[in-house]
Amino acid sequence: VGEAIVPSESLREEYDALADEVRHHRALYYNQDAPEISDAEYDALYRRLEEFEALHPELIANDSPTQEVGGEVTAAFAPVEHLARMYSLEDVFSLDELEAWVRRAEASVAAAGFPAAAWLTELKIDGLAVNLLYRNGELVRAATRGDGRTGEDVTHNVLTIKDIPTRLEGEGHPEEVEIRGEVYIPTKAFNEFNEALIAEGKAPLANPRNAAAGSLRQKDPAETAKRPLSMFVHGIGARAGLSTASQSETYDLLKAWGLPTSPYYEVLDTYEEVLAFIERFGEKRHSLIHEIDGIVVKVDDFATQRALGHTSRVPRWAVAFKYPPEEVHTQLLDIQVNV
Ligand code: NAD
C-alpha cells in the first residue's frame, strides 16, 4: 500500500493562488462581462493551472476551474435549472494538439465499436451560450449557461431577439426540446452601433463578445431590444421524442423549424479536410458576419457522441481549436483612435 503523497505547504499555496487568479478573471468575464485581461492571457493562465494539476494531481480541488463549467448565476436573474447539462469545450492551441486529439478520438470511436466518425466542423462564435426551451413548438424559457447545471433566466431579453422564433414553424414538434446556440453581435452591426454611440458622445462598447453578453444580461429588456443581437444554433440538450441521428441532421430539422443555423458548417470525413477548413477560415476570419475565436470539431453521429460521453466540464466528442491570438481586436484599436 503506497503512502499518501502529502503536498508541501508552499506548493499548495502556489496552487491555491493560481486557481484563485483564474477564478477572479472568470468572475469578471462571466458575471460582470468586463474582463481585465485578454482571452489569450486568460487561456495561458488556465493552461498553467492545467499543467500544475497534471504535475500534482493530488492537489486538484473539486471546485477547481478545470473541473467545472465557468460561470455562475448572479442574483440579478432568477435561476433556471437546465433539463440537460450544458458543457464547455476542450481547447487546443496548435495543429499538433488538434491532430493528437482527433487521433485519440478516432481510437476511442473504434474501441467503442463504432464506424469512423464524420466531423461536423463549424465556427466557434464569439458570443455567449443560451439555452432555449420549446414546449410543443412554443418558446417558454431562455437561460444563460451559468455553471452548466443552472443558468440565469433571460427569457424577456431573448424575446427581443428577432432571429429567435417564439413559435417554431412546421409540425410534429417534441413536447420538450432544449435548443442551444450562441448569441452574438454581427461585426457590421457592432461597428455601426459603436459609431452611433461615439456620435452621441458616449463611450463605445469594448468588443462584440462582451457587448453581446452585457446586452443579453440587461435587467431591462427594453435596453436589450436596442442592441443588435443575433443567434446561431450549435447544439441540442433535452430532446425526448426527437428522432434525428446526428448533429447535422438535427441542424436541417432546426432550420426547417425556422431556427437560425450557421451558413458555415461542414461535415468532413478526415482530419486533412478539417485542417483545410481551419486554414480557409483562418484566412477569412475577419471578413465573416461575426467574430470567431476558433473552430469547433464535433463527432456528428449522436450514438457515437453518447458512447464517448463527457467529463465534468467538457464533452469527449468535441474540441475547440483556437487561432493564435495576434489578430485580436484591431477593430477596437481603430475605434479608440477615432474617439
Ligand atoms: P469556450 O468559450 O472556450 O467554449 C465553450 C463555449 O463555446 C460554449 O459554451 C459555447 O457558448 C461556445 N461556442 C461557440 N461556438 C460554438 C459552437 N459552434 N459549438 C459549440 N459551442 C460553441 O469555453 P468557456 O469555458 O465558455 O470559456 C472560455 C473562454 O472564455 C475562452 O475563450 C477564454 O479565453 C474566455 N475567457 C476569458 C476571460 C478573460 O478574462 N479574458 C475569462 C474567462 C474566460
TrEMBL record:
Annotated positions binding NAD(+): D39, A40, E41, Y42, D43, S88, L89, E122, R145, E182, K298, K322
Catalytic residues as annotated in Swiss-Prot or TrEMBL: K124
Function of the molecule: DNA ligase that catalyzes the formation of phosphodiester linkages between 5'-phosphoryl and 3'-hydroxyl groups in double-stranded DNA using NAD as a coenzyme and as the energy source for the reaction. It is essential for DNA replication and repair of damaged DNA.
Family: Belongs to the NAD-dependent DNA ligase family. LigA subfamily.
Descriptive protein name: DNA ligase
Originating organism: Sinomonas atrocyanea
Gene field: ligA
